[in-house]
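W.,

You were right to be curious about this one. When I first looked at the sequence I had no strong expectations either way, so I just let the prediction run and decided to look at it fresh. Below is the sequence, 105 residues in total, followed by the output.
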Amino acid sequence: MADRPDPLTADQIAEGLRGLPEWALVDGAIRRTVTAPSFLAGIELVRQVAEVAEGMDHHPDIDIRWRRVTFTLSTHDAGGLTFLDLEQARLVDGLVADLTAAHGA
C-alpha cells in the first residue's frame, strides 16, 4: 500500500504516550480500558469511536465486557504504531471526556 504510514520509533512512541496518560504500550500496540457509567453508555461510546474510525479509515480492536470497553490501536499493515494510532487515541480520549461530562462522572 503506497500510502501506508511509517512505523514510529521507540522515542516517538514514548513522546506520544506522554500526552496520552490513560494509554499503555502493550505487545506493540497502545491500549486503554474505559469503565462506562452503564452498558448502553459503553455501547454508545463504541458507536462514536466507530464513526471516528470510519472517517480515518483506521479501525481499532474493541473488546466490550459489560461496562468495560478496551480499545487497542496499532497499524497492522505498517507492522507497528504510526501517527494514526496516536491521533485516534487523542480522539478516543475526547469522546471519553464527553461521556464522562455527560454522565457527571
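Here's what jumped out at me. The first strand starts at residue 24 and ends at 26. And, maybe more interesting for your project: The chain has one domain: 10-100.

Coffee later to discuss?

I.
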